[in-house]
Structures are given as C-alpha cells and as structure tokens.
Amino acid sequence: MGVRERRLPLLASGSQLTLLQFAVHRLLEAALVLEAGLRRRFDRIVVVTCKPQQRIERWAQRFNLDPETAKTEVTRRMMAQAPDEAKIQAADYVIDNSGSVEATRNQVERVYETLLPQAKAKSA
C-alpha cells in the first residue's frame, strides 16, 4: 500500500495540513478542522491529546527551547484552538498521547483497524 504525502495550505492562514493518502482512504492532520467549521467535510474525526504540561515539555524538547519560551508558544497555539473538552466531544475517536510511545501506538493501531474496513466499504 503506497503512501503519498502532500502539504496543503489551510484556508488563507498560512498553516499547513499534511495529507497522507493511502490506497482507498485519506488521513488529514490538521489542528484547526473544528475551529474552521470543517467538521462536516470529514467522515471521522480522530483527536490526539495529552496533558498540558507534556505539550510544553515536548515543545521545548522538539525545538530546543527553555521551558518558559515553550510554555508561551504552546499557550499561544492552544488559545487559537477549541478546548480539549470540545474537541474530545466532537471526536469519533480519541487517542491519549500522555503515556508511552507503545501505548499510543497501540491506540493508533486499534483506531486504524476500525477505520480501514469503513474506508474500504465506502469506496466499494
């Protein structure tokens, strides 16, 4: 099964979306789908969440920032998004990314195994 990745502009905001296209279905990674009012354009919504402090720590590590700078940036970004509670309520599936990489991978695999037959049935 081939995977093709494309970067797409999100509305006029300059943000980027990642579109992963598999044989019969597409997975779009986009932080602001719900905020942009695009929910109805998608068959399913998967929300990935983690604890707020983990976001800050991960951002600091990813971009080699001090904790205060990372906190400022994460807070700014989260203020542009719907609260986690609203995203979770709108989601068809929720992946808790607060644990180990293996725990997250297991959740992703379960969701994928659920979505794949649905995508194949829809394209049939």
Summarize the model shown.
The protein has 124 residues and is an alpha+beta fold.
Explained architecture:
The structure is a single chain. By secondary structure, this protein is of the alpha+beta class. The strands form 2 sheets. The protein has a 3-stranded antiparallel β-sheet, with no helix packed on it. The protein has a two-stranded parallel sheet with strand order 4-5. The protein is built from 4 helices and 5 strands; from the N terminus they run ββββαααβα.
Report helical residue fraction.
40-55%
Low-confidence stretches: 1-24
CATH superfamily: P-loop containing nucleotide triphosphate hydrolases
Through-space gap between termini: 17 Å
CATH architecture designation: 3-Layer(aba) Sandwich
According to CATH, the fold-level topology is: Rossmann fold
Which features would summarize this protein structure in a list?
Rossmann fold, globular, disordered N terminus
Sequence-ordered SSE layout with sheet pairings:
Blueprint: E1 4-10, E2 15-21, E3 26-29, E4 46-49, H1 52-63, H2 67-79, H3 84-90, E5 93-96, H4 101-123
Parallel strand pairs: 4-5
Antiparallel strand pairs: 1-2, 2-3
Helix pairs in contact: 1-2
